[in-house]
Design goal:
Elements lengths: L22 H19 L3 H23 L15 H8 L4 H9 L1 H8 L8 H21 L26
Helix pairs in contact: 1-2, 1-6, 2-3, 2-5, 2-6, 3-4
Length: 167
């Protein structure tokens, strides 16, 4: 599954200014950025994938903390919904991203368990870039300034090849 390329966040009508966001939102955003930095700096491929996925999950938690309204306690037999399902409900403009990251949850679990065959280096590096882009979209949808993409911290193997300029 490929990540959405054209998704732009709509400013949520009920959203507040960045200064009015709950402390939990700021905390989750900081933790998402820390996970993303860890993903970018770890040489271990499975850990890179897992940390990038966790960064996206924490960015989702930040958005849910800001936008979600508490629901009544679930009735017996009612199925729990995961963060990706909740993200699609609370932020429909990010539903494609929710589906994308939900599809990678099993790979993340395998990577976290230490499987060296769970993901390829390319998949890990792509997910780092996608998580970085997603974090920026979440920040923007919360009315914040997007962080500067952290591309300069990625290992050499994930930098795009230089474009040759013919005269």
């Amino acid at each position: 599954m490929t990540p959405p390329r054209h998704a732009t966040p709509a400013h949520h009508p009920g959203s507040r200014s960045a200064l009015d966001l709950p402390a939990a939102t700021h905390s989750y955003l900081a933790r998402a950025a820390a996970s993303l930095r860890e993903a970018m700096t770890t040489p271990e491929v499975p850990m890179r994938y897992a940390c990038a996925h966790v960064a996206a999950l924490r960015a989702t938690a930040a958005l849910l903390a800001a936008r979600a309204t508490p629901a009544p306690a679930p009735r017996r037999g009612r199925q729990q919904r995961n963060a990706w399902v909740l993200l699609a409900e609370v932020a429909p403009e990010l539903a494609e991203w929710a589906s994308f990251f939900a599809a990678g949850a099993a790979k993340r679990a395998a990577a976290e368990s230490g499987s060296r065959r769970a993901v390829t280096e390319r998949e890990a590096d792509d997910l780092v870039r996608d998580a970085d882009r997603f974090l920026g979209l979440v920040e923007e949808s919360l009315g914040m300034t997007r962080h500067v993409p952290l591309q300069e911290h990625l290992p050499c193997s994930v930098h795009p090849a230089p474009v040759s300029r013919s005269a």
